[in-house]
Amino acid sequence: MKYIKLKSITTYSELYGKQIEKSGVIDKIEKLNTNKTLEILKILFNTLNTPWYSNYIYIKIKDLDRERMGDILYSKQTLFYTLKWIMAYSKEINNNYTNKKISLEDIVEAIDLQLMISDFLDKDDIDPTTYVYKNIYFNTLRTLKNEIVRAFEIYVELASKNDLYNFKEYVDINQKFITKYNVSIKEYISVIFLLSAFHLTDFKFKNIDLNEFFNNTKNKYKYINIVKGLGQDIESYKRWAQKTIDNSWDYSEIYKYPLIKIEENKYISLESFTIVNLLFEGLYWKIVETADNENARKKIIDFLGRPFEEYVAMITEEVIEMLKSEYKFVHEFEYGKKSVKKSSDAYIIKNKTLFIIECKAGRPLRSTFEQEDKDNIKKAVEKFCVKSIKQAKKSFDDICKEREDLKFDKFDEIYIICVSLESVKHNKETINIMKKLLASNIDKKIKGYFNFNIEEYEGFCELLYNEIDVKKELDTYMNNMDDGTFYNYVYKYNKKIRKNSFISLKFETIAKKVNEIIFKG
To answer: Rounded distance, CA 278 to CA 353, Å?
Structure first.
């Protein structure tokens, strides 16, 4: 997961002194060659961090003063918003689509369109809390290796071990998936993995022909149907795009259908995040949608929390066993003198320091990332940060009283890490809410408390695996939580873990399984 630093965007009105009316933008879209424009957007998405177009192309063609330009097209949101306008107002892609030769003038025309559309981004009455919160989520990119490992371990391996769960709570999600989609979860993950890997190499510059792509696989037509279910033609996006055109944060339909159909069995992909996102979060909702009714839906959601908790405990224990150091792992356990209670999901002990791991298999509402939803952001802080931290602290206090043999009261320093599917995005206001509501629960022993999403927690485990002092890292991050995500912080200050990764070891094993699942002998 990578966090892209936000930059200011030069708009059309700043360059030329006027804002184009909406009707004028629509007129320009209708006149542009849609096929070429999509190809150019693909180029711009994949050169987002190397803005050669502003340093060379735009100055050369438009003969503009470099000092007036600022940062042109240095925003993923603006490119997505341009794509949304094209979906809303372009004419249907020509069915005899072919890769068109693109000139510098064509690229500048597309950049001009993007600059016109950037004038319609949020400008007035921006709430700093919701704006920063949405920007952090929107500019957080998922890591393919983590997504594939996590999806395979949770949805395939752990979810199938029914002996781990109470029979009343167990749901055979794999059988439900086969019944609804005519493909197993492990086949689905394998196909999306291949698609993601292809995008990160050739797909970002080429279009995909499904017949050729799956030519040497075991079940060619089954796999083709999986991918076809991830795409639409421009006309199919149109109603959603027009209805939500004033919301420059809502790209739900593009996340659901990240492939744009250009003709039968031929598609283009513009941005890798939308494909990688299918592997874990997207698959979560695809599994939930196998439910026949609301009660079944709730049961599936409740059950999915169990293999998630098992995964968090599993990777923690595996990493500590690899270390063979002074760290000790303690799994969730039952306690209680008068009634049976359960501890937090896992504990890590090092000398006089205790790390409490508390899982909550949920996520803030999608609306908090897609619109002005300050109330639900506050509710998310209370649910995933405050409530979970209080729960972990109460369990700790009870264990100190009821299980004296464990000597939990002897620890000098305590860190509470609450892990959820997606975390609350930290900015100054969300951090202040958390601190205010926790003030009466935090004693001098508690040196840090955090809400990590699952990929951030994997980053924490990578620190352990590389024998980096996690206490020191958490102390530093506790004082700088509003600087970005913890995962970004981990990679910024610890380059070492990029080369030495326990997730990479698991990925190699799963990649071999994918090869066996998909390809002929």
So the answer is: 38
Q: Sign of the C-alpha dihedral, residues 445, 448, 450, 454? A: negative
Task: Give helix then strand counts, H and E, for the chain.
Answer: 27, 13
Pick the closest to residue 62 from 26, 109, 8 (CA basis): 109
pLDDT band of residue 454 (cuts 50, 70, 90) is very high
pLDDT, tens only, 313-355: 999 999 999 987 889 999 999 988 778 889 999 999 999 999 9
At position 272, the amino acid (one-letter code) is S
Q: What's the gap between Cα 187 and its chain centre?
A: 21
Residue pair 3/488 in contact by the 8 Å Cβ criterion: yes
Beta strand spans in 432-497 (E)? 446-453
**Which helix (H) or strand (E) segment is 418 a member of?**
strand 413-420
The answer, yes or no, to whether residue 195 has pLDDT greater than 60, is yes
Give the 3-state secondary structure percentages of the chain, helix then strand then coil, rounded to 5.
60, 10, 30
Q: Are 172 and 184 in contact (CB under 8 A)?
A: no
Q: Report the distance separating Cα 337 and Cα 354, nearest Å.
A: 23
Coil/strand/helix, residue 368 = helix
**Count of alpha carbons within 13 angstroms of residue 316, beta-carbon side:** 28
Amino acid at 216: N
| Nearest-angstrom CA–CA distance, 190 and 373 | 36
Beta carbons of 417 and 469 less than 8 angstroms apart: no
For residue 356, the Cα-to-chain-centroid distance in whole angstroms is 24
Per-residue CA distances from 137 to 50, 133, 134, 289, 364 (Å) = 22, 7, 5, 24, 11
- Across 25-44, b (16+ Cβ under 10 Å) vs e yields beebbeebbbbbbbbbbbeb
Evaluate whether 93 touches 266 at the Cβ level (below 8 Å): no
12-45 pLDDT per residue, tens: 666 666 788 999 999 999 988 888 888 888 888 8
238-271 burial, b if ≥16 CB within 10 A, otherwise e? bebbeebbeebbbbebbbbbbbbbbeebbbbbbb
